Give the backbone structure.
Amino acid sequence: MLQKAFISLLLFLFTALPYLSAQSNSSTATELSLNQAVQYALQNHVDVLNAKDDEIIAKKDVKEVIGIGLPQVKGAADLQHFFEIPTQFLPDFVTPSVYDVLIDEGLLSNNNSGPSEVFPAQFGTPFTASAGVEASQLLFDGSYLIGLKATKTYQDVSKKTTEQVKIEKVINVSKAYYNVLVSEERMGIIIANETRLKSLFDETKALYENGFVEKLDVDRIELSYNDVVFEKEKVQNLLNLSLLVLKFEMGMNLKEEIQLTDKLSDIQFTPTLPVQDNFNYQNRVEYSIMETQNRLLELEVKRNQVDYFPNLVAFGSYSTNAQRNEFDIFEKGEWFPTGIVGARLQLNIFDGFQRNAKIQKAKINHQKMERAFDLMENSIDLQIESARTNFENAVKSLQIQEKNKALAEEVVRVTKIKYEEGLGTNLEVTNAESSLKEAQSNYYNALFDAIVAKLDYEQATGSVVIP
């Protein structure tokens, strides 16, 4: 009996082992550093992928425009069966000639010119076939040359747009990553406070049972402990939400498990900003994009101006055709060739002032863009000053909160010693614990604000590094 049970257990473990192994592998979280998270976003996020596709599309647009200036060759062939041969009306040349002879012979008077009629006639054969090839080459077209420059300039816009998307993704992922780190630190603080209060509660309860403290002391600590337990649940929910935000910014499936490898304690935060002696507006990719767009508007003006110039196209064609009374096109009979070469010069003489209106519109748009540069420069200056001010305030707040945290930790240490020696009350311990929790939370909030402020400054000055 025992032997059968043992064999059954072995069979169960053998069949369950692959499932348990799969479960273990599926529950393994992906470990990510900040750099790895950013790299993942740059390779997988939809915004980045779409921007890269737009770059490819822009390259194809350039090739498409280049193709307009290359030889254009077309071939065609057709086979037709006229089951009813087309009919045409021809003038009656015979009857008038007969009447003229009769008049000349005096058989008819001059007043009788005879009927003027037409008669139907059918031309062609029931079966026709033709095949040919034609080619053309653009020799000169001013708008084509300008359009080619415009498409290459547009390609530059798409490249810079991709760079802009990548910068935004670096900033967003970094902020989301740091937010998770701060949430994890908060959770660590809450867990430590929970453990500390649980220990204090157990000690105070034991003292109460031995008659050394009042019931009120036990209730106060229990109240603080319950608050920490609730706070822990709330912080855990916020931590889970911050992880979802990070995965969303990375372009990762929200159901995947991740584990951050960086820690706030490992971050070498520098409370100073890099010196910007010779700031160049072109450092901002948005400004660089505007410059490229401005070149497009300049090219639009030129394109409409060169429309006044003629365009010249060379062309040629060669074809052959056959006509048969029977369907024996490919069996016998002669094919008749036709060939032609030539050139076409086309000039727009008058278009109802349409081109002039287009030129004026393009010039106005160019003027608007010039004014937009002034607005963009003022906006960048404001962003830089705002980011610098926010960073300086965040650093000051961080320094103050760091001191407050150290003071709160010392107050808790001294208060607990006094309480254990009977020189203090548990109310003092509870208040000190609450102050420490608040100081720790304020410190990590200040650290996160300082990190975000520095990222905002780097973005404002165009100094974000894309890994």
Summary: The beta strands are 30-32, 72-81, 87-91, 118-122, 127-140, 258-260, 311-324, 336-346. The chain has a mean pLDDT of 84.
